[in-house]
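User: Design a sequence. Structure:
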């Protein structure tokens, strides 16, 4: 079942996300990836993505994002919501 992943990064900034651009540029080839968006949120930065499954996201996060995350930077708080339906353009 498709999931909506929301990551809150306390103290996160546009510059931090821009520094991870190579990882984000590769996301489109990740198994199960549907869509990505990010932007400022109160106290930090929010990343929202849709994936085919939570397992697809977790596999990509562990192998691609975690190793590239800024050393000493705040790790995101991640939540998942199951989606009943995804309609694509």
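Assistant: Done.
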């Amino acid at each position: 079942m498709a999931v909506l992943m929301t990551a809150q990064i306390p103290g996160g900034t546009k510059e931090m996300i821009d520094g991870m651009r190579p990882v984000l540029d590769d996301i489109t080839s990740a198994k199960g990836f549907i869509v990505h968006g990010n932007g400022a949120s109160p106290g930090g930065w929010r990343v929202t993505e849709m994936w085919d499954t939570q397992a697809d996201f977790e596999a990509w996060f562990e192998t691609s994002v975690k190793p590239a995350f800024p050393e000493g930077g705040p790790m995101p708080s991640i939540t998942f919501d199951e989606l009943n339906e995804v309609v694509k353009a």
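The longest helix spans residues 54-68. Helices lie at 14-19, 21-26, 54-68.
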